[in-house]
Fold:
Amino acid sequence: MAEENASRKRVSGSEKTFQESVAQSAPLDVPCASEMLVGRLVLISVGLLAGLAGVWYFCLAAYNRRRGILALRKVEAACSHRARVLDARWIGTSRLQAHLRFAAHWFENAQVTIRLLPRPLPVQWLLSHWQNERETVTFEADLDNAPGVQMEVFRHHWLSDGDRQLMRGSRNWTVTRSQPVVLTTSNHWRQELPPIVTTLMTSRGHSLLKVRLRPDSPHLAATMDLDALSGEEAAAGFLGVLRELAVGASRSRQ
Structure:
């Protein structure tokens, strides 16, 4: 009896050991088929989004490059027989910068910067649209004679968005077409300013968004809307305004 009890205990002990080993070797958590399907769908979605983002980036980066090079060619064509492009380089995907060499007594250390919308980056593109940013062309250069004035001019258009029905219903309205108005922060109107302001008030000067003159380098900086640079004639007009500004600024030094 004692031997039978001992053999039974050994058998039961070996069975427990076998069951424990099987329990330890078995996986603790077996994922179901639905969870595996969700994981695969997530991976596929991430891959598709990454692919779409890559296609968006490369296509719109190429569009920006074509647009920037076209604008630079217009500027170069307008400067024919007066200047040539020395080099051009891209800063990111939305800014093209080029150095120009002009003939004597025109401009020194001339540089053109074409700023485009950040189309390859969707978030930045949406922000730029929300902030009403524009694509611009900025010309910077030194003059033979540094300007004797330091001024910065911004162009603004104010449009009335009142109730048109109220305006039409009343006969007490008198509409007058006024001349351009200059608002300045200077306490004294210097004699050398009228030639410069007169140039800015011409029809060609209206295309400029911003003009800066200062004694330090660069002496002259002017910015215009890229859409206004519609052709070689517009680019030539832009160059003509810059030349008139340079002449007026140089006279202010004399």
Summary: The chain is about 45% helix and 20% strand.
